[in-house]
Amino acid sequence: MSPKRRKSVAASSGGPKSSPAARSTRSKSKPDSDLAEHDDGPRSSSGRLTRSRAKVLKESAGVSSSKKKRRIEEESPATTTATATATTGVMHREGHGALASRPLPPIHPPTTPRVRKSSRIVRLEVDRLQKLTLRRDKKDDPSTAAALPTPSDKNMVLGMSRSIVRVSSPPSSEGKLISPRTGFVISWDRATKRAMIVTLSTYFKKKPHEPQPELQVHLPDKSIVQGRLIFMNRHYNLSILEITSDLPLQVPAFGSASKYGQKILALSRDENMSLVARRGAITWSDGSFMWRNHYMFVDCDVPEGGVGGPVVDSCGSSIAMVHRAGPGAVIISISIICTFFEMWKQFSCVARPVFDVDLRSVELAGVSLREELSVKHNINGGFMVKRIADDSALEHLGVRRGDVIFFEDECGTSLPEIEDYLLSLGWRYLQGMKSMVLKLLVHDIEGPCKETITLPLEFSVDSGKVARWRMA
């Protein structure tokens, strides 16, 4: 016997049947079909809402509500962070490291109330900020940057940093002061912290009551120490200072004598104690002035304050010193300076033969003059006499202006080499050789005369009495 079919709630109710109009309205809304399309839960065979289907719909609604609540809770921290970011203007980097977790500065920092400060505090703060800005934005001058284009060039110059100093002085009672110049270390004693500085000096006669000039030596770390003038020489215009330095200094590497055509770097320090470099070459020219035949020239413009600075070759070895700044600067070979210093250190003085004549190398003369000397007189070397001192020993022996002379001793073919030879004779003199002569072959280019003369040498010994002279 089959069980009776259960009637639906709507069928069991005794309500009146729906009218055609109501059925038409219900068919248009189609609530059961909508539920059938969007609900995956069980339903009655007729598509009508039953008790079991209502229970399922209620449970699914509760699950949906809990999921929505959980999603809102998960999104709330991000919303809070975004709100805080919008409020404070502080943003955080994404990442797990300590650096990435740091907050970025506010885009629009809050304004702080203005506090009135004293003018002294404001001035100190401005000075501090200016110094920080200068250190951060410090750059080489364009000429130095052009002279040191590669890292190897910069490293070579930095290797000489502890060798290059700046020398100056405060104004004297008469307002006179020593023009700032550069110097370099020529001797350093690590045990006593004493250094010898060689630099350039010019001279003027001081009054007997005037004290010895006060000298200041500016070191690479910008500290200033007192410099004691212990020796000066008028012929070479060189001075030796002694200082005591807590900063370890160093003696630069000294090369051989400078050569014509050699590539060089002229180094110095400016008023801010920054290293200054000028790149150039030694020109194929010579010059003499007041019986000083040892000058050489470079084709670069050395700035003011560069006198006394070292001139280095491509290997970083010092080969000369700047004697005069400006375009076509004048330099002195390092061989002369080293002999000068060693002679003073051993004998406390410098000796040199009296040789009062200005010379000019024939090899460096112009083509027209050289051709004339070669064709007419068969002269292809030697030195032309530009000027000779009145009433000198050479004048008494018959040497005249325009003559060409040859040194019979092997003393070199250039004027700096002749100066090295004369200094070597002064060394022999201080060692006890008092009688020496110089043999010269003299050509008279105005006539056929050619004669060898013997010049007895007299020596000038300079003990560098600083009590009689001062730097200017």
Strand content: 25-35%
Strand count, sense and barrel status of the largest sheet are: 7 strands, antiparallel
Question: How are the strands of the largest sheet arranged?
Answer: 9-8-12-13-14-11-10
Radius of gyration, in Å, reads 48 Å
CATH level 3 topology of the domain at 139-346: Thrombin, subunit H
Averaged pLDDT: 79
Query: In CATH terms, what is the architecture of the domain at 139-346?
Result: Beta Barrel
Pfam family, one: Trypsin_2
Biased composition (Basic and acidic residues): 29-42
Organism: Oryza glaberrima (African rice)
Biased composition (Pro residues): 103-112
Element layout with pairings:
Elements: H1 9-12, H2 20-29, H3 31-38, H4 51-88, H5 119-137, H6 142-147, H7 151-158, E1 164-168, E2 181-189, E3 194-200, E4 203-205, E5 215-218, E6 224-233, E7 238-244, E8 263-269, E9 275-281, E10 287-289, E11 292-297, E12 310-312, E13 318-324, E14 330-333, H8 334-347, E15 350-353, E16 357-361, H9 367-377, E17 383-388, H10 393-396, E18 404-407, H11 415-430, E19 437-443, E20 450-456, E21 459-462, E22 469-471
Antiparallel strand pairs: 1-2, 1-5, 2-3, 3-7, 4-22, 5-6, 6-7, 8-9, 8-12, 10-11, 11-14, 12-13, 13-14, 15-21, 16-17, 17-18, 18-19, 19-20
